Amino acid sequence: MIALYDRTAHALDRSADTILPTLGRFVFAATLLIYFWNSAGTKWGGTPFTPDIGGYAQIFPKVMEAVGYDISQMSIFHWAVVVAGTLAEYILPLLIVIGLFTRLSALGMIGFVVVQSLTDLYGHGGIEHAETVGAWFDNLSNGAILDQRAFWVFLLVALVLKGAGPLSVDRLLAGRRAS
């Protein structure tokens, strides 16, 4: 029985580098790709380089409130952050799904999720609502920040550590470099 377990564990270990990153990218595409693209779409009016009130209000909620939601009072810095954030919400998920620069893209998405979470907590007041923040080890799995985003980051960390897997542009490019 132990020998069978050891052979099975060894076979699973050998297949992990193929299965985990490929499955991770599939799960990302199935659960988060459209979420991020839809979120990005709420931030611009016409093109990603022309953010509208939604973009500024989502990323700089307290500043927008202070200026009476008048985007003409926002600085070039605010514009650049909204444009960069919007482009990141489109580009980084796409790169992860196709498996191009996957480790770097997943690392960028981890940073994005951290900033997104801090904005949700402190900019939008989520910190004041226990059900939004959630709590680990509380027998509930639906806290939007601590619970759900922990899974997002875990998935992205796996991609940073394992790369894109065999069915990816990264692997195709690596094969060309080796030739």
Automatic annotation (TrEMBL):
<protein>
    <submittedName>
        <fullName>DoxX</fullName>
    </submittedName>
</protein>
<feature type="transmembrane region" description="Helical">
    <location>
        <begin position="20"/>
        <end position="37"/>
    </location>
</feature>
<dbReference type="GO" id="GO:0016020">
    <property type="term" value="C:membrane"/>
</dbReference>
<keyword id="KW-0812">Transmembrane</keyword>
<keyword id="KW-0472">Membrane</keyword>
<dbReference type="Pfam" id="PF07681">
    <property type="entry name" value="DoxX"/>
</dbReference>
<dbReference type="InterPro" id="IPR032808">
    <property type="entry name" value="DoxX"/>
</dbReference>
<keyword id="KW-1133">Transmembrane helix</keyword>
<feature type="transmembrane region" description="Helical">
    <location>
        <begin position="76"/>
        <end position="101"/>
    </location>
</feature>
<feature type="transmembrane region" description="Helical">
    <location>
        <begin position="150"/>
        <end position="169"/>
    </location>
</feature>
